[in-house]
Amino acid sequence: MSPAHDLLLRPVAPEDLPALERIAAATADGISSLPEDRERLRERIERSCQAFASEDAASGEETYLFVLEERGRVIGSSGIAASAGFHDRFYSYRNEFVVHASAALGVSQRLHTLHLCHDLTGVTLLTSFYIEPAYEAGLAPQLLSRARLLFIALFAERFNSRIAAEHPGLVDAQGHSPFWDAVGRRFFNMDYAQAEKVVGGRSKAFIADLMPHSPVYVPLLPEAAQFAIGQLHPVGELPFGILQDEGFDADTYIDIFDGGPTVEGRLELLRSVRQARRLALRPGALGLGQEHWHLVCTERRRDFRASLARLPAGVQELSPEHRVFERLGPPPGASVMVSPLDAVQEELR
Amino acid sequence: MSPAHDLLLRPVAPEDLPALERIAAATADGISSLPEDRERLRERIERSCQAFASEDAASGEETYLFVLEERGRVIGSSGIAASAGFHDRFYSYRNEFVVHASAALGVSQRLHTLHLCHDLTGVTLLTSFYIEPAYEAGLAPQLLSRARLLFIALFAERFNSRIAAEHPGLVDAQGHSPFWDAVGRRFFNMDYAQAEKVVGGRSKAFIADLMPHSPVYVPLLPEAAQFAIGQLHPVGELPFGILQDEGFDADTYIDIFDGGPTVEGRLELLRSVRQARRLALRPGALGLGQEHWHLVCTERRRDFRASLARLPAGVQELSPEHRVFERLGPPPGASVMVSPLDAVQEELR
Amino acid sequence: MSDVRYSLRAWTSADEAVCAQWRNQAGQPPAAPAPEEQALVLCDADGRPQACARLRPHLGLDIPRYSFHIGRAVHAAAELGLYHCQDTLLLGNDHTGEAELVDLACAPDCPQPQQALSALLEALLKPWLADPANRGRQLVVELAGWRRADGRSPFWDGLGRLFYPADPTPQRARWGEAWPAHLAALMPRQTLYLSFLAEPARQALGRAHEGAAPALQALATQGFAYSRHVRIDDGGPIWVLQASTRLG
Amino acid sequence: MSDVRYSLRAWTSADEAVCAQWRNQAGQPPAAPAPEEQALVLCDADGRPQACARLRPHLGLDIPRYSFHIGRAVHAAAELGLYHCQDTLLLGNDHTGEAELVDLACAPDCPQPQQALSALLEALLKPWLADPANRGRQLVVELAGWRRADGRSPFWDGLGRLFYPADPTPQRARWGEAWPAHLAALMPRQTLYLSFLAEPARQALGRAHEGAAPALQALATQGFAYSRHVRIDDGGPIWVLQASTRLG
């Protein structure tokens, strides 16, 4: 029996506090959005429980937190913030390229500039991804990251149709961000850690007010800073790769502070959502054909559960006796959602 | 027998010159990209024949022209330019919205600006759409517009993966463009028709050099010009509607001269391409189930043919005896491409 | 230029009440000087205040000071014989840190306002110009912009109002010198082409209010010149005295 | 200021050869005047040319003339106690249409260059200032930017070179006065923050080449002042004479 069958994703619960503390301690500063502070973690859990429980129309303030457990032990977390920059603007730099040409000088150059924008204000953010190192290689990260997208698709009225996720940018051996040193620092005269301290609990929008609104001309930056534009901190490779495979665009936006890539995509075009199907539950249903790993999730909000199962490619219905329900629990409705994990790209030729 | 069965889309041929002259005469100035000039039309046909015939890798200069015929009579045209702004930049205005806020004054305003950009340089352009008025209501425009997308998908190495199409903007009762009068005219001191004359055969890029590179602040424009931003000339409604249904984005770019919407989308995400399937040809193959209209096209470049057929939704193979081959001619290969015309949107809930 | 009938003295707290009905070059009643500022009052032979002026060592260091710089942009295509030169406006803080002349005002019944203001200015400028180490490079003065008879500013109607649709009067009264800084947050941040503004707004650009005429003439006498900057709300001109010009 | 030892006359075609080895305020050899331009030559007691200057009625009407305007931008967050004022550069054509002083030069062996240039300038300016109808509002003069001993311009190395990577010398020689207009097509079009430039480029901004020192001093004597504009290739300062300042 493959261990992937033992994985279950579910909303965080108050009892998960010790596990979250362990996760917060394990994640490097600034990489995860989980605070290393018991009270703030308790608050995060509470807010998540309220978000899952709330019957009201979405206010945009909600943050949803999931944990991944293997046979009851929490091994990872992932989250969703319903609306980026809620109560404020959410700033990014947008990469732009313009051609500057002079026929007389015989020169035509592609000029790279960074434009401060708040294009991503109000989009839904994927946050808080963490998986224990021992589980990085298997299917666990896939379930942890992608099941969120099915949750968003199921309860679309609570979220924006544009989804984004921030990823940590490059730092050098001394822990300094070359991008911050070349850009943000010129407007703060302090390093990023200091700036974060000064700004305290305030939003990034506040910091952005201190930054110039005219474009940053990339050729004017030191080479290390140019190189850092859109570059990923190695710690972010796993979650970044999964989102790239989902079809998120990684070329348009970067973080205004460390230059890390902020990916963005439309929900309905993301792979797991595009390929998601609803399977009717019918006792005794038999799927025929070669089996592939699928995400399987229930359709309830508060009791949302997601797990993995091997199912035939074109499966239309599922038996409530299927072993996936050993993890998911007795199916609460007449159907479940599934989405293939290793689907091949549709190809025309 | 439905007349839709009688329609055939094929590459333009030298014999089509009189038909194209008729089309050029029927289309309003500036609406179609077909010139009302026999020599230039002959040249367009010749360039198209060369483009279809060329075995070389694409240079980007190619323009492909299709005609739609009903039982041998040409009733419409559509085209593809492989690379927008070939040999030069292709300019558009990009809509941008920024929030300007003052806590002290208690004001937060969404400010609309237009940014001169050449984001669309090099994308593949859909051009030259024209259908005789008598055929506007039926399936003919669908075949005429969408079959181009299958052609692009089949020969993707010749095209950009981003596809765009310009649409005519609003003009007032006197034939003036309120957008031009408020924006372009300030930099030319002449009306659009005059400007086109002065500029002659030069590219739009040339005109754009005369326009300011700082954003146009929409609140400063007269109301009629503000209203014209992204507004469609009624004559463009039919082709515009088809592309909207394909999933083209119509909110981002507008024409820098008349403010008409320039739609844009990624090839692989367009509906006809996403839903396209290759059907094997097998004598005696029988499709079962309720039939829907499908685009059907051959997979040859030079002898590209597209027509319409009623096929079952999940059809996997097709008989060479199928009546669609009365129009398409004997199938040149072992398969054809099909794409449903009236597919319902995939829905998750 | 100075006149024997006049005498000069430093501002005293009693002057505030006396000057309450005066209007300075920017259209506001004069205020008491801050500790680091130097304020002079010119009195007539009977000791009655006739004019006042104040020198602020540095502007825009507490509250950012905004202005529009008036520039030019040429768009030309020689091959087509097309050439267009247009005036532009750009929001900025160009005078930050410079010295500023404020509350240049004279009594409504002053018999020779221009003469009085010139005498006052000359007295105020002499020590400033003589102290290159501390004086900075420019002395800046903002003048009230032109208004129609009904009090409306065509420049405001053609520009500011489009970005702050409410009546600015209460906000200007509430925020005082900070008002333009708050307004600036709502204004276009990139280059504006003047040709996009309505004709009355263009006509009003850089044109001073009639009430500022004596002040303008007195400033010109002392070597001040138009800086090609204007106030962001009413388009009133900003004049400067280049320290080096006087020293040259 | 003028000296009895000197005499003034109009430029003649013979002067071109005489002045071929001179260098004007912008570092170039003087050229013959165009028909609409006015050029004067100052000769010593023996009739030998000692200095020359030329007045062009309008600049930038054939070939667009570019410069960087030096502005300031304040970014402040009072609640955080953060306040930053930065100098900015913006590409523009601000002096288009103004009058221009060009080819201000003196003989390499001129005994009193500053005095000669001042005398020449005064003679050239008098009729210009006396003709308000035709003279425009400003007289503009561009000065060569600072270079290191090896002839390299730190301003070019820190800015222009990043947008035009080739050696500019042949292009400058080939295109002459049109060179900056071609260069401008490659340069940033929106506001640049000076802090993004390397320190040597910032130091060189608005600093004149040592060879221009006598011209600078003569210009200052005549009321010219730094306009807060610089040349786009070498960052050399642009000085202006405000017509109104002199008349005030």
TrEMBL record, chains A, B:
InterPro entries: Acyl_CoA_acyltransferase (IPR016181), Arg_succinylTrfase_AstA/AruG (IPR007041). It comes from the Bacteria. It holds the Pfam family AstA. One of its GO terms (biological process) is L-arginine catabolic process. GO terms for molecular function: arginine N-succinyltransferase activity. Gene3D superfamilies: 3.40.630.30. The keyword Cytoplasm does not apply. Keywords: Acyltransferase, Arginine metabolism, Transferase. The keyword rRNA processing does not apply. This is Arginine succinyltransferase.
UniProtKB/TrEMBL annotation, chains C, D:
GO terms for biological process: L-arginine catabolic process. This is Arginine/ornithine succinyltransferase subunit-like protein. Keywords: Acyltransferase, Arginine metabolism, Transferase. The keyword Cell membrane does not apply. It comes from the Bacteria. One of its GO terms (molecular function) is arginine N-succinyltransferase activity.
